[in-house]
Amino acid sequence: MSREPQNSTSQNSDLLPRSLFAPQSDPQANLREMVDSIFSDRFMIFLSLLIVPIILVPLFVDLSSDALNFLDICDWMIVILFIAEYASKLYLAPNRWKHFKSPWHIVDLFIITLPFLDLLPMVGLSVVGSPSLLLRLLRLPRVLAVSGRAAVGRRTGGSIAQKTEEKGPATVIRQVDSELTVTHNLSWEELKAHVADSKREEWLDLQYVSDEGFAQLSEILGVAEPHFKSALMDDIYPHIDYVRKSSFIFVQSGVIQYPETASNFLTIERSGVIIICNGTKIITVSRHSIDWLEKIKNSVLRTRKSQAFVVPVLYSILEHLLDAYKAVLSEMELEVIKISGTPRSKLPKDFLERIYMLNKEVSRLVSILVHFKDMLSIVISKKVPLEGFDHAAEEAFHVLQDGAGYVNEISHDLSDNLRSIIDLYINQTSFETNSIIKILAVITAISVIPSAVGGLLGTNLMDTPYGATLWQLSFIITVSMGFAAYTFIKMGWLKT
Fold first, then answer.
1. Is residue 44 situated within a structural domain?
2. What is the rounded CA–CA span in Å between residue 437 and residue 346?
3. What is the C-alpha separation between 440 and 461, in angstroms, rounded?
4. 180 lies in which domain range?
5. Using one digit for the tens of pLDDT, what is the confidence trace for 438-465?
C-alpha cells in the first residue's frame, strides 16, 4: 500500500515516524536554492548593466578625484558580488568539475579575474599602459555573458519541460464475463462490439485512459465527453450522475504516499474511478492502473448467491475501495500513535506544518467517506439500473453501508487525535515561551535594584549625605536582590 523511504539507513529514520522524517537526497539543495534566489539572473543582469556607465562615464567625462574614487568603489563592490556568485555556485554545484568547465562559467571566471590586473603595479608587476583602456573595456562583456547565460538557461529549462511531457502508457481494456473468464488487451473496436451487445452480462475494465481515450469512449457510449469529468476524476467527491439510461458512479481509490524529500509531506494519493452501470454491464474507467482484478474475482465468488453477475461485481468494487481506505486509516492510526509517543526534542522544526498537512489529508478522507456512505444509500434505493438487484443484494449493500459508517467514525476519531496533538504542541510551545518571558522578567526585576541604587547615589560615595560605605551598600543591594529572587521562587516563576 505504501513505498519505503529511500534513505532508510539514516539514524533519524529510527527516531521519527515516517510522516515526519524525510530523507534529504541532496543536503545542499536548500542552500543552493537560496543562493540561486539571491544571485538570480535578473539581479546579475542588473549588476552587469550597472557596470556600463561606471566604466564608460570616466572615459568621456572629466570627473573629480572624489567622483572617480566613488565609481571605483562601486566597481569593486560589483566585482566582489560577481566573485561571491561564482564561488558560491561552484561550491554548491552537484558536480563541481562539470560546473567549472562549462563554457559560460569559464567566461565568468575570465571576466571576474580581469579587474585584478589593475592590482599588478601594486605588487611590483607592470602592464603596458596600465591601467589601459582595453583592460577597462574588457569588463563590458559581463553584460553579454550574464544575459546570454540567463537566456540559455531559460531555453534549456523549457526544453527539459518539453521532454518530460512524454506520452503515457497505452489504454488497457479487459473484459470479465459472467463465468469470471478474463479477456485481456481488447481493442476499441472490440469494446464497441461488447457495449453494443446488451444481453451479455460482463465487466469491462479500462485503465490508463487518456484524453483521446475518453473521446473514443464518449463516441462508443453515445455520452457527451463532459459527463466523464475526466479532468476532475482524482479530486471530486464520491457521487452519482444519471446520463440517459446509465448511472455514472464517481469514486476514488486511496493509497498513502510518504514524503521522499524534506520538502514533501505525507499525502493520500487518490486515483479516480468511474463506474458506469447500465443494466447488464459495468464499465470501470480510470486514468491510472489499479491492481484489483483478482481481488474482485475472489470477492464475486464469495458474495455471489444467484445468477446475477453485475450486482456482486459492483458490490465487490465498492468493498475493495472501502477496504483500501480502511488500510489507509489503519496505517495512519499507527503513524499518529508513533507521533504522540515521539519526544518533543526529536520533533522536526516544521512539525506543526507537517502535522497540519496530515490533518488536512485526514479531513479530506472524512469528507470522502461521508459522500461514499450517501452514495451507497442511493444504490440501496435501486436508483442505479442493475440486473438482478434483489432483496439479498439490498441487505448486502446495507452491510457495506454500515461498514462505511464505521470507517467514517474511525476517520473522525483520527482527525480529533491529530487536532489534540496540534493543540498540545501549541500549548507546550506557549508554556515554554511564557517560561522564558518569566525568567527574563525576573532578571529584569532583580537588576532594577542595583540600577535604582546606582541612579540615586551615583558612582561617587564620598559626597553623599547618607553616610554609607561601599560595602554597606553592596550588602544591602545583595540582600535585596536575594529577597526578590526568593519571592519569585515562592511565586513559582522559576520552576521548570
1. yes
2. 24
3. 31
4. 172-430
5. 888 888 888 888 887 777 666 555 555 5
